[in-house]
Each structure stands twice: as C-alpha cells, then as structure tokens.
C-alpha cells in the first residue's frame, strides 16, 4: 500500500533521542530501582478546585460538541488575560482553543508554512519541534544558542541564517531545555530582524509562570510585533494539568480567521467542561504555579550546590522552567555516553543534551519535578561517575 510522504518525513523521529529513557524503563520493568530525571511533568496533582469545576460542568451537561474556535467563557477569560498582559485590547476573535500547546503549534504551523519553506528555531530546542516542522513539509533551520549568552537567541545570530525561503521564527521563552528567558531588548532586536524579512513569530510560552530570574516578555506584548506574532500556551505547566489538554493560540484576527477552517476540519472544538475549568483557572492566581516555582527553584539550587565545580562540572541555576543543565564536557564524554553510563553504573536516568540539538552536546538535562531526596541521590551518582572519569583522566 502507498502512504503519503508525511509518514516518511516523520518516520523514526526521535526514538534515539529517548534511548536513555527507554532503557531506564526497561531496567525498571526488570526490577532495577532507577532514579528518573528524564521527563518534565508537574509532580503535584491538578488542583482539586479545578477538578471540581470540571466535574460540576460535566454533571451540568457540558459534554456536547463545541466549535472550531472555543467556548465563549474560556475565549473571554483568555482575551482578558492577554489584554491585561499586553495593555492592548485582545478580543475572542484573536484567540483559538486547542487540545494543548502541542496541537496549537501543529495547526498554527500548518497554517503558516509548507514544502519549500523554512522555519527557524534556536538550537538547542524542545524535542517535538522537529516533528511539528517536518509535518508541514518545511525545513528546519537552526540559530545556535550560545552558553555565553545564557542560551538566549541573539538577533545577529538569527540574521545570519535567514534565506528568502524563511517564513516563521519559532521562539520558546522561557526555553526548554535551557530555561533561558528572552529580555525585552533582545526580543525587540529579534523582532526587528523578523520585520525586515517579513517573518511570522510563533512564541511558545508554556513556562510563563515558572520564572526564577528575569521578567517575562512576549513578542506579542511589543506593539510593533503584534501583527506578526502568534503566542501559544496552555494550562499544562501553569496549573499542573497536562492531562486535560487545554491550550490556545493568540494572534491577529486575520490569522485566526484563516486558521479556523483548518481547526474545524480536525477538531469539533475542545471539550466544554474543560473549557469551563480553564476559564475558572485563568480567572485567579495559580496556586499550583506558586508551589512548583518554590519547589523547582529550591531543587535547582540544591543540584547546583551539589554539582557545580565538582570534577569539572558546570551547573548553574536556570532562569526558569522545570529543568537544569549540567555541562559535563570536562569529563571528556558526550552527553549521550555519560547519560548511558550513569544509567548502567549508577541507576540514574537523565536526558543527554544531544537529544535537544547539536549545540547541547556534552550537557545533561535534569528534571526538577522529582522529590528532593531523589535529587540528592541522583547528584551523588553523577558526582561518583564524574570523579571516576576524572581519576582515569589523570591516572
Ligand atoms: C516548550 C514546550 N512546549 C510545549 C510543551 C507541550 O505543552 P502542552 O502540554 O500544552 O501540549 C512542552 C511540554 O513539555 C514544552 O516543554
């Protein structure tokens, strides 16, 4: 039988990126005790008041079809959130709801780029962006993000990779895996380059509420960029609710009008009871975000204290997010090799930096959504392996 070329473009995507995680699960299945710091999923339950709202809505019959844009209540709540944040009137016509940021990203990209186009991302990048971009038929072009700039994209580096085929810059601030938060000046400079080359900016902002150091700015907040920016986000991280799959995009009215038929052809909207719960959550400060903020910052500091400067490791507290990076280049191993040995020899699973792009070669990404005692045990394992490697180097 014949298949469409999209299946070839996506075939085999990413399974080697997850080799350590997959091996860790196999070892666990076989009875080994593994400390897993690979994936980042909120480690606190979805707040019970949100679940109560969804439950009451379901019992009140909010279980029918919705529509391609979203339920009026959640659209109004999102319009209010973004009007307040940007200081400009954002209306429900600027907003569309989707099952999570991931779906929003996929549908938004299908509306902006296709075969023959280029979509630009930073490198390192969030692991699913490759699939989102390849599905459109477009090619991904990388802007290197340098550790000496705190992994924040610089306008001059962006300018260097732009060709006439470029259509979209996919930004991620706060950034996964580095935690980098783009400042207003950096965004304005990046935005200037995008205006010059007539690029769309898609801004993935799922970690907006998990910033430890710095102030959140979105390109959407900058009036000069509003006509070319689409912000995507969700309640997955901000409200510890990834399983509810409640996300959205906010952009120019002309854009959402164009996108609507695409969304209608895929979804009959998102579930009304989840829309009600999301509207409720957006109407008040997120206690879940406050708890995670406190926990993740404490754990990042704890990890940095235990690893930074030990056996050549560099491990600094990130600006934001659910992860911390450890630079293990001084051990002489790649991130892939270190992570695999760490799993086999110390039963600690972390993500190799290489899974997030070539610019993160020789790094490890550690999840902060793991209890403190496990974090301590994982750090001890990393220190033991790094010390063994150092002894061998100087033996
Ligand atoms: C940068 C980034 N974007 C998007 C997502 C997915 O978010 P959602 O659950 O809203 O689809 C994640 C999840 O880890 C992420 O790290």
TrEMBL record:
GO MF assignments: L-aspartate:2-oxoglutarate aminotransferase activity; pyridoxal phosphate binding
Family matches, as InterPro entries: Aminotransferase_I/II_large, AspAT/PAT-like, PyrdxlP-dep_Trfase, PyrdxlP-dep_Trfase_major, PyrdxlP-dep_Trfase_small
Cofactor dependency: pyridoxal 5'-phosphate
Record-annotated Aminotransferase class I/classII large domain positions: 33-382
Transferase recorded as keyword: yes
Key words of the record: Aminotransferase, Pyridoxal phosphate, Transferase
PANTHER family noted in UniProt: ASPARTATE AMINOTRANSFERASE (PTHR46383:SF1)
Family designation: Belongs to the class-I pyridoxal-phosphate-dependent aminotransferase family.
Protein name: aspartate transaminase
Organism: Phyllobacterium phragmitis
């Amino acid at each position: 039988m014949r298949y469409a070329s999209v299946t070839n473009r996506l075939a085999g995507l990413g399974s080697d990126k997850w080799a350590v995680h997959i091996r860790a699960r196999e070892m666990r299945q076989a009875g080994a005790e593994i400390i897993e710091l690979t994936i980042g999923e909120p480690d606190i339950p979805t707040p019970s008041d949100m679940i109560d709202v969804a439950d009451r809505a379901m019992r009140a019959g909010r279980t029918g079809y919705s529509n391609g844009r979203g339920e009026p209540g959640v659209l109004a709540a999102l319009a209010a959130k973004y009007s307040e944040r940007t200081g400009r009137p954002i209306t429900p016509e600027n907003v569309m709801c989707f099952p999570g940021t991931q779906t929003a990203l996929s549908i938004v990209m299908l509306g902006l780029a296709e075969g023959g186009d280029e979509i630009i991302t930073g490198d390192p990048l969030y692991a699913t962006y490759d699939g989102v971009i390849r599905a459109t038929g477009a090619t991904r072009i990388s802007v290197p993000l340098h550790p000496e700039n705190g992994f924040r994209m610089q306008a001059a580096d962006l300018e260097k990779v732009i060709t006439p085929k470029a259509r979209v810059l996919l930004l991620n601030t706060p950034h996964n895996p580095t935690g980098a938060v783009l400042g207003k000046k950096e965004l304005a400079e990046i935005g200037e380059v995008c205006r010059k080359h007539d690029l769309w900016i898609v801004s993935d902002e799922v970690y907006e509420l998990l910033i430890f150091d710095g102030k959140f700015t979105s390109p959407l907040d900058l009036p000069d960029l509003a006509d070319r920016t689409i912000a995507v986000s969700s309640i997955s991280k901000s409200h510890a609710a990834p399983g509810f799959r409640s996300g959205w995009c906010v952009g120019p009215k002309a854009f959402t009008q164009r996108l609507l038929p695409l969304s209608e052809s895929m979804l009959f909207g998102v579930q009304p009871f989840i829309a009600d719960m999301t509207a409720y959550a957006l109407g008040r400060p997120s206690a879940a975000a406050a708890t995670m903020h406190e926990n993740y910052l404490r754990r990042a500091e704890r990890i940095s204290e235990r690893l930074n400067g030990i056996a050549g490791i560099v491990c600094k507290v990130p600006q934001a997010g659910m992860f911390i990076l450890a630079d293990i280049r001084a051990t002489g191993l790649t991130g892939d090799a270190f992570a695999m040995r760490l799993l086999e020899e110390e039963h600690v699973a972390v993500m190799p930096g290489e899974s997030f792009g070539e610019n993160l070669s020789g790094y490890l990404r550690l999840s902060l959504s793991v209890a403190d005692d496990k974090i301590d045990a994982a750090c001890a394992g990393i220190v033991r392996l790094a010390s063994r490697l150092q002894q061998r180097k100087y033996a």
